[in-house]
Design brief:
Distance between the termini: 110 Å
Number of strands: 11
Largest sheet: 7 strands, mixed, barrel
Strand order of the largest sheet: 1-2-3-4-5-7-6
Radius of gyration: 29 Å
Structural class: alpha+beta
Shape: globular
Length: 487
């Protein structure tokens, strides 16, 4: 009897197990069928448009200090060796911007064969007109040997300002861009020697190239465009678009150029709708806040100049700041360029259409921009901005006397920075505070635009030119370059 019971129990248990196995098999089959249906739907349904794939949120810089290629709190030491005749030829015809073979030592690291060229447009024209030799230079470390770099940077731009205030302006502006979370080139001060001869202090700025893109963005295959001078070669295919995007040069994907995603983005701005599906509005607003509060009118938001545009994800573009030496000075004698907000009736629109003005018509983005303006104003204080300026003054003061190519006298430089007599090249902290106070006043509706205080002297172009001096003993410098040339 016990045996029969055991058999019955065992039989029941087996039936139970069979049912469970059956259920599992049925559920597994159903799950597989569901998966196949989903895959089929994904395969047969129409593909999403680019605008549906992209992430329209702002691209905020999350770069940690340990990843920096440049040390922004020390002066980079750069020694260049080049054939004296080649260098003289380059200085004699800077507009060609030809690459010349040279060697270099950057902070003690030797580079046997690099490229050296002149760079710039407006600054170069000014130096050429004044018959000075303070041309900006570019060190192309990878010109002859692929992947040759300095801490991950393959090309270093050396910006020699006609006066030392320009060096301060650029250095501090890039620092403020970083503090506002904007992806932007690294920069620091650099003292340059050529063939053993002291050549001068510059701001060393990281080139916006493939290395920069790889370091800052997950997507590295997008189109990179640079704003270029209208005398340079630009993309004819884009010339029909309004002034904000008119003179652009493609820097990546040049073998198989495809401007279709760019045209879609540009057309959205022309139409005035859905542009935030194709453009990083958050970064634009942050950049505009820094530029407008610091008076950097020579930028993307005002004169549509000095910027890069990058396709940070397929079909989605962002703006990258560039050439920030015009900040903290009243270089534009035009009330429209010195406004925090454009006029609501659009009567101050300059040079055709403008991306920034289009975005400012949107109340949501206008409020967001206003908040960023306040954030930039909060940065201009004794605790944050003053230490940056003091550091810059200590560096420029130390190296100014060793600068053989300087065209702005040292005593005049100290008089301006200490007393702020000349507003254009004056006390940068006083200027920054005035610009900040004007920005806050404009937000309250108390003033329309930044106005130069009456107590500041406004020099004419002729008076400013009279301050400059010719580089001391330039012919002697050329001779020393030849004598000191290393083999």
């Amino acid at each position: 009897m016990n045996g029969k019971k055991e058999i019955k129990v065992a039989s029941a248990q087996n039936k139970c197990k069979s049912k469970k196995r059956g259920r599992i098999i049925i559920f597994a089959c159903l799950g597989a069928i569901v998966c196949l249906i989903c895959l089929g739907l994904l395969f047969f349904l129409p593909k999403s448009k680019t605008s549906e794939k992209i992430n329209p949120t702002g691209l905020i810089c999350t770069y940690s200090p340990s990843q920096y290629s440049f040390d922004e709190n020390s002066v980079m030491q750069i020694d260049v060796n080049i054939d004296a005749n080649e260098f003289k030829k380059m200085m004699g015809n800077p507009e060609k911007k030809d690459l010349h073979e040279a060697s270099a030592k950057v902070d003690g690291k030797k580079y046997g064969k690099i490229g050296l060229r002149t760079r710039g447009n407006a600054t170069m024209a000014k130096n050429t007109d004044m018959k000075t030799y303070r041309y900006n230079l570019e060190l192309r470390l990878d010109a002859y040997e692929d992947d040759l770099n300095y801490n991950g940077v393959e090309s270093i731009n050396l910006n020699f300002s006609t006066n030392y205030t320009g060096l301060l302006n650029e250095y501090i502006s890039y620092r403020l861009m970083k503090e506002m979370g904007i992806i932007s080139p690294e920069c620091t001060f650099a003292f340059v020697r050529i063939n053993g001869v002291d050549w001068g202090l510059a701001v060393a700025v990281e080139e916006v190239d493939k290395c920069f893109l790889k370091k800052n963005y997950e997507y590295t295959s997008g189109n990179l465009y640079k704003s270029v001078h209208d005398n340079d070669k630009y993309e004819d295919e884009l010339i029909d678009y309004w002034y904000s995007f008119k003179f652009l040069k493609l820097k990546t994907n040049k073998k198989n150029p495809d401007h279709s995603t760019f045209k879609t983005m540009a057309q959205a701005f022309v139409d005035g709708k859905d542009y935030d599906k194709y453009f990083d509005i958050d970064t634009l607003l942050r950049l505009a806040a820094v530029d407008r509060v610091t008076g950097g009118f020579d930028d993307f938001t005002a004169l549509k100049n000095n910027f890069y545009l990058y396709e940070a994800s397929p079909g989605f573009y962002t703006v990258i700041p560039w050439d920030l030496d015009e900040a903290f000075r009243y270089g534009a004698d035009c009330e429209n360029l010195m406004r925090i907000f454009p006029k609501k009736d659009g009567s101050d629109m300059t040079m055709d259409f403008n991306v920034f003005y289009t975005v400012m018509k949107n109340e949501k983005y206008r409020n967001q921009y206003e908040e960023y303006v306040r954030r930039v104003c909060d940065m201009i204080n004794d605790e944050n901005l003053k230490p940056m300026i003091d550091y810059c003054l200590s560096v420029t003061d130390e190296y100014h006397k060793r600068d053989n190519t300087v065209i702005y006298p040292y005593d005049r430089w100290r008089k301006d920075t200490d007393g702020g007599e000349c507003f254009i090249y004056g006390n940068i902290y006083k200027t920054a505070c005035l610009l900040r106070d004007s920005a806050l006043s404009q937000l309250k509706g108390e003033t329309d635009y930044f106005k130069v205080p009456e107590e500041y002297t406004q020099y004419t172009e002729e008076q400013i030119r009279a301050i400059y001096i010719k580089p001391k003993d330039y012919e002697l410098i050329l001779e020393r370059l030849a004598d000191n040339q290393l083999n």
